[in-house]
Structures are given as C-alpha cells and as structure tokens.
Amino acid sequence: MAYGAASSQSTVDNSQEQDGAVFAGQTLNVVTSSDDTATTTATGNAFSGSVVAGDLDMTSQQTLTGTSGALNNLNVAQYAGSGTVTTAATGNTGDATVTSGGTLTGQVTQSVTSSAVSANSNVNAGNAQIGQGSFETQAIANSQSFVSGDSAVNASVSQLNQADTTATGNATIGYMPGDAVFTAGAVGNNVTSIGAGAASQSLGIAQSNQSSVVQAVQITGLGDSQNTLTNATASANNVNITNEQGPLGVAVNQDNEAAVIAYGEEDALQFGGATVTAQAVGNSTLAGNVGTSVALDNVQVNGTGGVDSTVTINGGSGFDMAGASTAIGNAATAYACSECGGVMDITNSQTNGSDVSAKSIIGITGDQARSISGTTTAVGNSASFYVTKPGG
User: Fold this and answer.
1) CB-based contacts of 113: which residues, under 8 Å, 6+ apart?
2) Which of 96, 244, 267, 392 is 20 to 30 A from 343 in CA distance terms?
C-alpha cells in the first residue's frame, strides 16, 4: 500500500504472480448459539494503493496460474439467533484511491490462466431454526476498482480470464422467522470506478473472458419462513463507472466466449414473502455522470457460449411469491445530468452470436397464496443512453 502527503508524488510499480493453488475452507458445527458468523476467502493476488492530498502514478501487473477456491460449511443442529456466511474466491484484485485534489494515473494488467476460480457454501440446518441471516457466495476472476474524491483518474485496465468461474450456494433451513438473503454471484472480469465531488475520469478498459463457463447457482430450501430473497447473478465482463461534476470519458472493449449461467431456486413449504431473482449477462457496461458530460466508446462481442437465466420457486402455502429472470447478451448504459448542462458523445457497437434464454417456473402445491408474480426477460443487445436530471 502506498501513502502520500500533501502536494507529493507517489509512484508504485506492483508485480505479482501466483502459481500454486490457493484454497480456504471452514466448517462450523453449532448446536445452539445467538450468532453464527463464518467468513472464508481465498485470493490469488491482492493489491491496494492510496494517496491522500497528493498524486499517484501506479503500475500493477497481477498473474494467477493456479486455482483459487473457497469452501464454507455451516451446520446447525438446533438453534441460531442469526447467521452470516460469506464465501469468496478471487483470482486477482486491486484497488486504488486518490482524494483532495490529486491525480491518479494508472496502468493495470490482470490475467487468470488457471482452470478454476470457485466458491462453494453449504448451510445445513434442515431440522433447526435460524432467526435471520445473510448468506453470500461470490467468485470473481479479475477485479479492479478506483475511487476518487475531488480528484482525477486517468487509467487503463486490461483483463484476461481463462478460468471457469463458479459460485454455488446451498442452504436448507427448517424454520426462519426473520428476514434472510441468499446470494450467489460470479464474474469473470470486473472494473468499477467511483468519482465523488469535483471528480473527472478518463478510462480505457479491455476485458476478455475466454473460459468455458461463468456460473452462479443459489438453491434455498426452507420449511417455515418469513421474508426471503434468493438471488443468482452471473456476468462474464462487467464495467461500472460513475462520476460527479467533472467530465467522464470511457472506452470499453469487451469480448466473452464463455457460457454464462444464473440459476436461482427457492423451495418454501410455508412462506410469508418469497422472492427469487436470476440475472445472466455476457457483457455489461455502465458509464454514468451526474455532471457536465459523458463520452463512451463501447465495443461488445458476445460469442456462442450461450446466456441462460432460470428462476424456480416451489411453494406450499403462504402469502406473496415473486420471481424475475433476466438474460442479456450485451448491455450498455450511459447518462449525463441535464440540470448541469450535460451532453453525451456515444459510439456503441454490440454483436451477440449467442443464444439468450430466460426462464421462470413458479407455483404452489398447497391450498393458498395471496399473490404470485413473475417477470421473464431475454434480450440479445440492449443499449440505453440518456440525459436526465439527477434521480430521474
């Protein structure tokens, strides 16, 4: 990590290579407890650079040739007041921050050439009660983030992923009287950047996902439950850039050749509110500026691997049941602020060669439900560009 004082120039040249396997596993056996927390993370390479009131010139190269895997098992025999289970497997991750009028200049290269980045979580409480909980399973091959406060970012990022990237969550709970969220998320390549205050950004991003599959699966089985959300999200390449006040310029080139699969399932014998969502996206770009201008040069190519999203809900008897399944080959969004005199300069090219499928299967086997709703959306290429007032 690098720190700089006011009016200083900090330089960081980071090079990391991980060749062996990285694995983290944990099993937590509980009879009764008030609070259960199980956090398991496995990371190939991690880098962080931060400067307060100064400039940062950063070069970072991260390479993972070994696998990254995380496994969590939570076994509850009788009772847990709450449960928090976090399972995360990451290939390469980096973050850089500059604040108070500084400038961040960066060149980032990340590559994963191993066979797998995988996260697996199991909650076994079929004969037990968990009062409330949060259960998250996440697998990301490459991820880079930037944060600027009243500052400027000028950076380029190149990401390559060849590893099958999978997140699989399973949970079986007999009785859950409180709120609970069950999520599984898998991303091949990810770049996020947040500019706050008087910020400006210029970013060039190239992402290539060449693995066989990017897959997120969350399966939740409940006996008697109150309000629950089950979610599965899979994306091969993802870019999310937001900015305030100053100009925003982004050039994105995304190529995905993997199958992208999101599967969310919840089985609830008796339920208050049961919601299941699944989203599968080949390539996704967001460039949003609550400021003067946004310029986006976006190229997206989604290959023949297929994009598939499935929601399954099986309910006995209860109140409200809702499902939403979304599959998109290529998605691009950009916006600027109309009240700031905002303007857009957009060049967009999207090519989808893949089958895109979204499915929902929703039903009850008991005698009643107050409401049942479902939304299913499949889109080959989606583009939305607009100038609007903040928040609307």
Assistant:
1) 63, 64, 65, 160, 162, 163
2) 96
CA distance 19 to 67: 8
pLDDT of 2 reads: 40
Q: Which of 86-90, 229-233, 336-340 has the lowest mean pLDDT?
A: 336-340
Cα(336)–Cα(234) distance, integer angstroms: 27
315, 364 contact by CB (below 8 A): yes
Contact criterion met (CB below 8 Å) for 60 and 109: yes
pLDDT in tens, 222-272: 999 999 999 999 999 999 999 999 999 999 999 999 999 999 999 999 999
Q: Which residues contact 391 (CB under 8 A, 6 or more apart)?
A: none
In angstroms, the Cα distances linking 223 to 58, 76, 340 are: 52, 15, 52
Phi, psi of 303 (to 5 degrees): -75, -150
Distance CA 237, CA 219 (A): 24
Q: Residue 31 CB: number of other CB atoms within 10 A? A: 11
Compute φ and ψ for 98, nearest 5 degrees: -140, 140
Q: By the 8 A CB rule, do 278 and 233 touch?
A: yes
- Among residues 88, 65, 77, the alpha carbon closest in space to that of 143 is found at 88
108-136 pLDDT tens trace: 999 999 999 999 999 999 999 999 999 99
Extents of the domains making up the chain: 9-388
Q: What's the whole-number mean pLDDT along residues 152-167? A: 98
Higher-scoring residue by pLDDT: 34, 113: 113
Residue 184 confidence (pLDDT) above 60: yes
- Closest residue by Cα to residue 75 from 24, 122, 137: 122
The stretch 167-182 carries a mean pLDDT of: 98
Q: Is 28 left (phi over 0), alpha (psi -120 to 50) or beta?
A: beta
3-state SS, residue 34 = coil
H-helix or E-strand spanning residue 301? strand 293-302
Report the distance separating Cα 337 and Cα 344, nearest Å: 10
Closest CA relative to residue 332, chosen from 319, 321, 348, 353: 348
How many residues can be counted in the chain? 392
